[in-house]
Amino acid sequence: KPVYILNGPNLNLLGQRQPEIYGHETLADVESMCRRAAAGLGLDIRFHQSNAEHQIIDWIHEARQGADGIIINPAALTHTSVAILDALNACDCPVLEVHISNVHRREAFRHHSYVSLRADGVIAGCGTQGYVLALERLATLLGRQHS
Ligand code: DQA
Questions:
Q1: Crossing angle for the helix pair 82-89 and 53-66, nearest 10 degrees?
Q2: Is 79 annotated as a binding residue?
Q3: What ipTM is given for this predicted complex?
Q4: Ligand 1, closest atom to CA 73?
Q5: Is residue 146 part of a domain?
Q6: pTM of this prediction?
Q7: Number of structural domains, the chain?
Q8: pLDDT in tens, 30-78
C-alpha cells in the first residue's frame, strides 16, 4: 500500500511565502524530492496539499484503509485541529509529523501540536529534508531495508 504525504494550508505557496523561514523550494520540488527518496526506499507515495481542513480529514480517512503510513505537515492546523487529531487516532498505521521550520524557536502558539499526541515521530526545523527523513523513518518502521 502507498504512503500518504499530506500538506496543510498555505503550503501551496512554499517557495514564495516567507522564504526566510520556509526556504525557496516549491511544493513541487518537495514532491519530486519525495518521489526520488521513496523510489530508493521501495515506497509508493500519494502526495497531496489542501487549504481545506475537511479535505485533509477525507485523505486521512482514505489512508486509514488504503495506506501503510502517513507523513503529515498539517501547517497551521497543527496548532488548532482536534478534528485532524481525531482522524489520525482512527488510523492504525505509523504517523510522522513534519514541520519545515523549527516551530519551537518561533511564536509560543506554534509550540503546541494536537497532531503530536498521535504522531510516532516529529521532525521540525530540518527544512524540506524533513520529508525525506520522515520517509526513511517510515521505511524503518515498516521493516523495509533502511535504518
Ligand atoms: C509549518 C509550521 C506551522 O506553524 C505553520 O503554520 C506552517 C508551516 C512548517 O512546516 O514549518 O504553515 O507547519
A1: 10
A2: yes
A3: 0.99
A4: 13
A5: no
A6: 0.97
A7: 1
A8: 999 999 999 999 999 999 999 999 999 999 999 999 999 999 999 999 9
